[in-house]
Design goal:
Length: 597
């Protein structure tokens, strides 16, 4: 018999499988044969990349929609029919080293220069009218923002759906924590394509996740070894390996309108928000800064198709008002910027967010929202905040004299991943808005809740936890999760954040802890928007693991890749919350609108 938990995970897996497809492939359109297939485009170093070209009838020239993808240009081309019918030429290109493209597959390394060279080539073709837009989800979103630093004049608009700004910030690492549930599977699958091997089957991914030392994992993927995965595991600090892939210091070089799209539970939600904020503040021209747009819905990785009956994700029914026609939004964006069609895009608000809880879309003029008031909620207890049945309290009252809370973190018994931000690790690391009560029943989880709210409270923006702690080990992790507690007790995760203690001061120069010394650290939670309804409670829980989404910190202080079973240490943590050592969480609370007279 299939358990309810297995059914829930299966439904999440099916949803993720749908939304992980490139945006162009989500149409389900019948295949359109390329006008020209496997056209070889020369790069500056002589390597040629394979492209499929779809041209509308007529003499042209036409505006061009372009994507560079590691997931197969054929898949991207499946959505070409509708765009061709609207008068666009479509160019889909295989990433270097994959399928029809030559060269060596080195993830994220060549996309900036290759992307620019493809843009330059397309702009010179007789069927191109000199205006190019780029589209794509996930990796094909990164291939849009990475070349933007070179500013090809023909590129007039981007639509990056779930693009990273820095692989150290998400997908492969979250500020030093390895994305363990996702990285080995993706790396193996792509390496198999690059080396023209069949992807191995029958790999016990649960065994892989528990493997120590971590550096042994690349040799456990069925004989298809990814050097990129090995490098990811070896480079736990933010060094040159990561910086060469990053665009965080490139925003000032960019000068292109971009419609940034993500979901609140997307593994690239925070990264997409970072790109929007960076490009809106730093782009070279006032016009480019003005033309940054942000769209965030209540979904995971990629924009799902939503029926007229509503949208249920995880344990939440977000209702009927969530429905939007993303393909129409994207089409209007390109029509305005590539065809100069006066369709009202210039009159729309720059930010559109779905406020969970209220379950409504709302337009905003900026992100984060300027009118949000940072409001500090303090942690309180009588020393027994362990589990949701403990005495942990969250309130705006400043603490006086209170005993601290204590919990032990044993890497042999980590808190399991259940809900939250995710991408494609759904096989055994369920993502999304899921009920946290099981995890909040563990003794190694501290839980702090407000009393039932007497009025609606909207939290929209970036949340930050301030923890004062001591521990008896030299390194450890802290995870903080914000949840919305319903009157029936259901606790839906809203957002989360994490910190590896050795990176508390610097991601470039880690420093270990001194056992039993007191420290104050900030744990940054990802941007979100949720209205906590009257009668609900605001809750956070604090713990030291989220496995297998992230690798376990063995608490030894040794390099992540090198730690073995013999290095495991049980960490005994103390969280302080008294007048001199107040721990708290800062919530960006948006004031309720004034009543209409």
């Amino acid at each position: 018999m299939i358990s309810s938990q297995m059914l829930r995970r299966l439904s999440i897996a099916l949803l993720c499988l749908c939304v992980a497809l490139p945006a162009s492939a989500q149409r389900g359109a019948t295949g359109l044969a390329p006008t020209r297939a496997d056209v070889m485009i020369p790069m500056r170093d002589g390597i040629e990349l394979g492209a499929d070209i779809y041209l509308p009838p007529g003499d042209g020239p036409f505006p061009v929609l372009l994507t560079l993808t590691p997931y197969g240009k054929n898949g991207a081309g499946r959505g070409a029919a509708a765009n061709v019918a609207r008068g666009y030429a479509v160019v889909a290109v295989d990433s270097r080293g994959l399928r029809a493209s030559k060269g060596k597959w080195e993830p994220y390394i060549h996309e900036a220069k290759d992307g620019y060279d493809i843009q330059a080539w397309a702009a010179k073709q007789s069927w191109c009218n000199g205006k190019i837009g780029m589209f794509g989800t996930s990796y094909p979103a990164y291939t849009q923002v990475a070349p933007a630093q070179f500013r090809h004049p023909a590129v007039k608009a981007l639509v990056p759906v779930s693009a990273q700004s820095d692989n150290y910030g998400s997908v492969w690492s979250s500020d030093g924590l390895l994305h363990l549930a996702f990285s080995p599977t993706w790396a193996m699958q792509q390496e198999a394509i690059a080396t023209k091997q069949s992807a191995p089957t029958g790999i016990d991914w649960t065994k892989v996740a528990w493997t120590l030392p971590l550096k042994a994992i690349p040799d456990m993927t069925g004989g298809v070894r990814s050097q990129f995965l090995a490098d990811v595991i070896a480079h736990e600090r933010h060094d040159d390996f990561w910086k060469v892939m990053s665009i965080r210091d490139k925003y000032a070089e960019m000068d292109v309108p971009a419609l940034h799209v993500t979901g609140w539970y997307d593994d690239l939600s925070q990264e997409t928000q970072t790109n929007f904020i960076g490009m809106r503040a730093q782009s070279r021209s006032e016009s480019a800064r003005h033309w940054q747009r942000l769209l965030i819905g209540p979904w995971g990785h990629g924009v799902p198709r939503i029926s007229d009956s509503g949208f249920v994700f995880g344990d939440v029914d977000f209702g009927k008002e969530v429905k939007i026609d993303f393909q129409a939004i994207q089409a209007r964006w390109f029509d305005y910027h590539l065809k100069s069609i006066a369709n009202g895009v210039d009159k729309e608000a720059p930010v559109k967010i779905f406020v969970m809880g209220a379950n409504k879309w709302r337009d905003e003029q900026e992100w984060p929202i300027a009118r949000a008031r940072p409001t500090r909620y303090y942690l309180h207890s009588k020393g027994f905040a362990n589990t949701r049945f403990g005495d942990g309290l969250l309130s705006t009252d400043v603490p006086t004299t209170e005993p601290p809370d204590k919990f032990s973190y044993d890497p042999r018994n980590p808190v399991p991943t259940y809900g939250g931000h995710g991408c494609c690790d759904y096989t055994f690391a369920a993502m999304g808005p899921l009920d946290q009560r099981v995890n909040q029943s563990r003794a190694d989880v501290l839980v702090y809740s407000t009393p039932a709210l007497t009025e609606d409270v909207e939290v929209s923006g970036f949340v930050e936890a301030n923890l004062v702690f001591s521990t008896d080990v030299t390194d450890t992790d802290f995870f903080v999760t914000l949840s919305d507690v319903y009157p029936d007790g259901k606790a839906i995760d809203i957002t989360e954040g994490q910190l590896r203690a050795r990176f508390r001061e610097s991601q470039e120069k880690p420093s270990l802890l001194t056992p039993n010394k007191q420290y104050a650290v900030n744990v940054k939670l990802w941007g979100t928007s949720n209205q906590f309804k009257k009668g609900h409670r605001i809750r956070i829980h604090v713990t030291s693991s989220n496995f297998p989404r992230y690798n376990r910190n063995l608490n030894s202080g040794k390099p992540m890749a090198e730690e073995t079973e013999a290095d495991i240490r049980i960490a005994h943590h103390t969280i302080y919350h008294d007048a001199a050592r107040a721990s708290s969480i800062v919530l960006p609370i948006v004031p309720a609108p004034s009543p209409t007279p």
